[in-house]
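Quick one: structure for this chain?
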Amino acid sequence: MARRWAALATALAVVGGIGLSACSRGSADSIDYAIDGALITYNTNTVEGAASGGSQAFARVLTGFNYHGPEGQVVGDTDFGTIAVVGRTPLILDYEIKPEAVYSDGKPVTCDDMVLAWAAQSGRFPTFDAASRAGYVDIAAIDCAPGQKKARVSFAPDRGFVDYGQLFAATSLMPSHVLADELGLGDGGVTTALQSNDGPVVERIAAAWNDTWKLTPDLDLAKFPSSGPYRLDSVREDGAVELVANDKWWGAPPVTERVTVWPRSADLQDRVNEGTYDVVDIAAGSSGTLNLPDDYVRSDYASAGVEQLIFAPQGPFAATPARRALALCTPRDVIARNAETAVANWRLNAATEDAYSPAEATPQINEFAVANPGAARAALADEPMTVRIGYQTPNARLAATVGAIANACAPAGITVEDVAGDTTGPLSLRNNDIDVLIASTGGAAGSGSSGSSAVDAYSLHSGNGNNLPRYANGRIDGIISTIAVITDPKELARLLTEAGPILWADMPTLPLYRQQRTLLTSSKMYAVSGNPTRWGAGWNMDRWRLDR
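Got it. Here's what it folds into:
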């Protein structure tokens, strides 16, 4: 399994070595950036937020100790701070935030923000609606004096999380002082309550963490300070987010003064024709066949996320035979061929295709290689079934996918209803609005992936927020937990081989194909690079330049 926490010099060259100046003659002062997710919350660490387009929008608004580079690798952000390994058994890390690091409201960035991120995502306080506890669950303690710039993070014995660079990275650290002010807790009050396990106060903190940062046109900007080169300026009535240069940013200023981030829309082709968008970062085929004007450049590449059927934990798919029945009649070969890629057979090693991926492709996959309506009918004992399948619209490729499933499953007595909508997502499964969600990792419209298989595997760990099927299997929990802390290739292969038959038998999800990405840029854009993770092309938007 690929481990991507090391900083790579190539990515640093893309970010810092472009040598572009905000004063370049003929450069535009604004850029329009279109993505394939909704912009619903500033907090991309909630279940809903992690599946949204927020990571693509805010990678250079809410910074951290690391960010995800053009290959999805983790790169140290030394503008923000540094990490030093001071112990291996157990793993102990010293974090130091830059002395000059302040939010756009002038308040300092402190280790209090790290304590909040850990508490919210560690699983210790279940009222936080966090998407994932991967890595954070292994932290035994954070030594942080409220208001200070240094913290020591100690992991539990034998729980040295291998991909620790994924923690406290861009978009994971939210401004704790906003919650302290909101709740009247005073300076350091959030940290004190979390460290002392003050139950009633923690409940209030969790509720505020879940709901304070919703993106609406009438939001109070004072609650949305930035720790990056850009800050939030406004949310438009049409859902677009306006970012402007942050004058409190202590690093190199952004090349372009303003970036408007546009959420998924039905008129993408028209806007490309009109030249409205300068950068477009979407799932391939989601907007149908795009005809590009001569002044656009296109690149296609594989994401780190896998498009999949995610089954609801209640309703018709609460029972395993029903999940297996739909999987048996789903034409995975046809669906993948239409997406111009191969069928994906991985659940726990999904982020990167490497030597370990075949370990999950056990003989059981042969049952589900092509549509078999007869086997599906037998699995249901000839009982008819109606299935509501949803996905976030508009998405031409997923609409065709639902159509293919409906046609193939009709002979099995399975009626498929397309119930997609523009707000369909993880909460649709939770609220019983749909029976199946077609989405990438964690229910995302975009890639959804962290770039780390060890992190993404937690989407099938019991109790994890983005475990949307609410799947619970003690042995799979043990395998996922072990994968997170080992590097021995033979043991990794053995664990994945063991997991394969269990997951194909239980069928909490059905992988379809690796989500392909399309990046469109104006021929006058510079320094834009794709990214296979959920942070997308926005990972270095402060280096983008548009010539006029």
